[in-house]
Write a structure and sequence with these properties.
By secondary structure, the chain is α+β, with helices and mostly antiparallel strands. The chain has three helices and seven strands, in the order E-H-E-E-E-H-E-H-E-E. A seven-stranded mixed β-sheet has the order 1-2-3-4-5-7-6, with helices on both faces.
Length: 151
């Protein structure tokens, strides 16, 4: 059974899942990942989605406000044992729905060039490549994307 939970960044399951994400990213990118630490800090936010399978937390994502019209998707992760089951699509869609309910019109996100699964997910979900924005400008391993939220 799949369960979708809306929660906040203080949730213990969220903290455990993003710890796994950080370890995976370090394995993929090595020391360069340390330069992203400050960019991946999640302040207290009430925009966290956790997916549970048979009551086990296996995936997460969240967003933070970027500007009045735009949110930034952050910290998307699916446990390696549960990939390929469409769970990341469920999380992404739920984040977009939550943003839409809050009146946002656009999403942006950053992923890495060594994450073809993530790039594929976002492209299949209607995201388009854009120039690196804000804190990601000039970072060669960053890939930035956007999508308009439709009503």
């Amino acid at each position: 059974m799949i369960e979708i939970i809306r929660t906040d960044s203080t949730n213990d399951n969220f903290r455990i899942l993003i710890s796994k994400l950080d370890k995976e990213l370090f394995n993929r990118y090595g020391q360069i990942q340390n330069s992203y630490k400050n960019l991946n800090i999640i302040e207290t936010t009430a925009t966290v989605i956790i997916v549970k399978v048979d009551n086990k937390p296996v995936g997460c994502g969240c967003y933070k406000k970027y500007n009045e019209d735009t949110i930034e998707i952050k910290r998307m992760y699916i446990d390696t044992n549960f990939r390929g089951q469409g769970l990341s699509k469920i999380i992404l869609r739920e984040l977009e729905n939550l943003a839409k309910e809050s009146g946002y019109k656009n999403t942006i996100l950053e992923t890495g060039n060594k994450q073809p699964e993530a790039i594929g997910l976002y492209k299949k979900s209607g995201y388009k490549l854009i120039d690196n924005y804000g804190q990601y400008e000039g970072i060669e391993t960053s890939i930035c994307m956007t999508k308009q939220i439709t009503y």
